[in-house]
Amino acid sequence: MGGQPVEQELATKMLQIQHKRFYLDVKQNRRGRFIKVAEVGAAGRKSRLLLAMSTAAEFRDHLTAFSELYASLGPPNPDNLPEDGKLKSEVMVKDNRRYYLDLKENNRGRFLRVSQTISRGGPRAQIAIPAQGMIEFRDALTDLLEEFGTDDGGRDETTGSSFKGELPEGRHMRVENKKFFFDIGQNNLGIYMRISEVKSNFRSSITIPEKSWSKFRDVFSDYVDKMSEVIDKPSGATNSGSQSGGDTTGAAQSNTGAGGGGGGVANITSK
User: Fold this and answer.
1) Where are the domains of the chain?
2) What is the tens place of the pLDDT at every residue in 133-161?
3) Residues with Cβ within 8 Å of residue 167, at least 6 apart in sequence
């Protein structure tokens, strides 16, 4: 028992894609960190894959390429399916594990099949991600990698960032048809802010290390000030012109009043 690695769950995400649920769990033991991917079908059947953090990062990049290809394809044609069903394939190798990625099409639709094999033998594990859910899957994987990094090696828990306090809560805002999320996180490299832009099915994000926040603030503030000056200039000129026009009208009213009282003002208004 004492020799068994103690496994700790650090984070988890759940995705519902069509009739399937996918769980992405970041785990850590004495050998390092990894992501366990579990697929649960409608009947409750579960399939699992294990990805080292570096392999998960490679998988994320492949998901982007597969998603771009899928977006460029026309609607499925059941009468003209590929002979082997494959539209695109890739292979990933990590230590004694090999992963086969196949974007496939059959009479039920398009999907990405991910198979894991071990060179020493053992059962073959695989999951199938519906093609329209690849971007959502990639974004969830990206969030976990940004938070926990892509380093596989085991770490002593005393290393990394020395900050042990409570991080600020995340915030969000809506601008027209977009949402922006501001999330504070921490990994072995330190504290960071992740800013995500979400619009329909599109999501992109940037990560800013805490030590750079003040520089970003200064640059952003400088642009705010400069744009305020640019916007205020024509506004000021318009106000000046309005004031001059007001003086002229006042003078006209004064002169008219001297000649005919309130009726003169009414004549100016009607013109």
Assistant:
1) 8-72+84-148, 171-229
2) 999 999 999 999 998 888 886 544 433 45
3) 184, 185, 186, 191
CATH number attached to the domain at 171-229? 3.10.450.700
Apex 193 CA angle, 180 and 166, nearest 5:
115
* Tens digit of each residue's pLDDT (9 = 90 or more) over 197-219: 887 667 788 889 888 999 999 99
Return the CATH number of the domain spanning residue range 8-72+84-148: 3.30.2450.30
Token pair belonging to 60: 């994320």
> SS3 for 189?
coil
Torsion 126-127-131-135 (CA) sign: negative
Q: Which residues contact 99 (CB under 8 A, 6 or more apart)?
A: 49, 51, 55, 59, 91, 92, 93, 114, 115, 116, 117
Would you state the structure tokens that stand for residue 54, as one six-digit string?
């570096």
